[in-house]
Amino acid sequence: MKVAVLVEDNYQVLEVWYPYLRLREEGIDTVLVGTGKKEYKSKEGYPAQEELSIDKVKPADFDAVVIPGGYAPDILRRYTKVNDFVRDLFKANKLVAAICHAGWVLVSADILKGKKATCFSAIKDDVVNAGAKFIDKEVVVDGNLITSRNPYDLPAFCREIIRFLKKNN
Predict the structure, then answer these.
(1) What DSSP assignment string belongs to 110-162?
(2) Could you give all domains of the chain from N- to C-terminal order, each with its CATH number?
(3) Which of 163, 22, 33 lies closest to 89 in space, CA to CA?
(4) Rounded to an integer, what distance in angstroms lies between the CA atom of residue 118 and that of residue 103?
(5) Percentage of the chain lying above the pLDDT 90 cut
């Protein structure tokens, strides 16, 4: 199994590293995919090294994408290739997992219509206006879409990601 964890500047440090390391703990090939820079800084300045650029990813090579929050999603969503990658995985019934502000990428990838989802409260209106039914729970699973609200939800978020991957691969 291979999972892309998207990364950009101003990422939420726990929402990148917790899933990245937790999935590796399960023996899952986990790759930091960025927008073409060698290094990204979290909101606190913690570095993350890009392992693969979005320009070089192929949806067929991945089983899932994890989209962390922070303010990185507002940068990520500006890249057509990021939105296309997320949408292509979603349409192929592969896992798309988003936490906190990552709902912004789901909005821009246009995959929320008719789906149940959660997100950080500040972007609830964006998610609802994109067609999702908002549910205020630590984790919401709707088919191949898994969403969570904030770093406190990471244990439930990762548990559902691992459950989905083990069941479907």
Answers:
(1) T--TT-EE---GGGHHHHHHTT-EE--SSEEEETTEEEE-SGGGHHHHHHHHH
(2) 2-168 (3.40.50.880)
(3) 33
(4) 8
(5) 99
Contact assessment for residue 2 and residue 61, using Cβ atoms and an 8 Å cutoff:
yes
pLDDT by residue (tens digit) across 144-157?
999 999 999 999 99
Q: What is the pLDDT of residue 169?
A: 83
- In three state form, how does the secondary structure of 67-90 look? ECCECHHHHHCCCHHHHHHHHHHH
Q: Which residue numbers are catalytic?
A: 100-101
Taking residues 15-28, report their average pLDDT: 98
How far apart are alpha carbons 65 and 92 in whole angstroms? Answer: 12
Tokens of residue 141, six digits: 């699973």
Question: Contact 101/123 with Cβ under 8 angstroms?
Answer: yes
